[in-house]
Amino acid sequence: MTVSSRKDFFKEHFVYMVRQLLGTRNRLANGQSDTIVSNALIESNCITARALIDFFNDKDGAKASEFTDATYSTWLNGKVPSHLVKRLSTQIAHLTMVRTDVEVQKLDGAARETIFNACGMKFRASSNI
Predict the structure, then answer these.
(1) Where on the tree of life does the source sit, at the highest rank (predicted)?
(2) Does residue 22 register a pLDDT over 80?
């Protein structure tokens, strides 16, 4: 991938993902009276968070290390806790027997905020990507 195409990718796709994470987080924090809209926001938030976590961890798809310089460091303020990554995996668009319908086992606002803060801090610390 050329430097120009990396910049284009970054501007289009990475920035889109960060905006999605921020937008879904804010709308969920404000509450939704429509269950379908709320569920769609939760799924979008989880899928986006998972994609960004994978990106920063150099796992699957585009990898942060492909876009960085020598000063780049992974998760300066700590990774997303593994138990939350696992909950993301079981809550998002996978029809599995481990998908829960028990509210206390789902990602709540506090868990989403922890994930957002880790990804958000990583995004702010990644100005050299």
Answers:
(1) Bacteria
(2) yes
Domain containing 8: what range? 3-125
Digit-coded pLDDT (tens) for 90-106: 777 666 777 767 666 67
Two tokens, residue 94: 């996978």
Number of compact structural domains in the chain: 1
Q: What residues have CB less than 8 Å from 102, skipping those under 6 apart? A: none
Tens digits of per-residue pLDDT, 29-56?
898 889 899 889 988 998 999 998 888 8
Nearest to 77 by CA among 107, 118, 37: 118
* Separation CA 24–CA 9 (nearest Å): 22
Q: What angle do CA 85, 25, 104 make, to 5 degrees?
A: 55
Task: For residues 30 and 22, give the distance between their C-alpha atoms in angstroms, rounded to a whole number.
Answer: 12
